[in-house]
Amino acid sequence: MLLSGGASSDSRFSARSSWVQAANTLSDAPEFSNTITSNFTTIVYRMARQTDPGLGGAPGRSVPIEQLRQRGRIADRAGNAAPGDDFSKAIRAGVH
């Protein structure tokens, strides 16, 4: 579970409530969004950090970018997954 870290159920509920309130506010009065600094990934990550402040950040620079890109290519792993395999686990094999 993504948000299982050390966050209490009260803090998870509080964060979710604030997300719903923010969504409702934006629905009533849309705001400008700077897509350079705020996109789907960064917004979800920031919201998740509210629930679990211990959530990790970007990968360190100790791993070359080409190696990170290679790890992110899931097409071969997806194609090699057999029926009945845990697909989510199969496509993440070797990503660590």
Summed up:
The chain is an all-alpha fold and 96 residues long.
Tally of helical runs: 5
Q: What is the molecular shape?
A: extended
Order of helices and strands: HHHHH
Q: Major beta sheet, specifics?
A: none
Span from first to last CA? 17 Å
Per DSSP, what share of the residues sits in E-state strands of 2 or more residues? under 5%
Taking all residues together, what is the mean pLDDT?
79
β-strand number: 0
Low-confidence stretches: none
Query: What is the number of domains?
Result: 2
The computed structural class is mainly alpha
* Radius of gyration (Å): 18 Å
- Bin the helical content: 40-55%
Region (Disordered): 76-96
Features:
mainly alpha; 96 residues; single chain; 5 helices; 2 domains
Question: Strands, helices and their partners?
Answer:
Blueprint (H helix, E strand, L loop, with lengths): L8 H20 L11 H12 L13 H8 L2 H6 L6 H6 L4
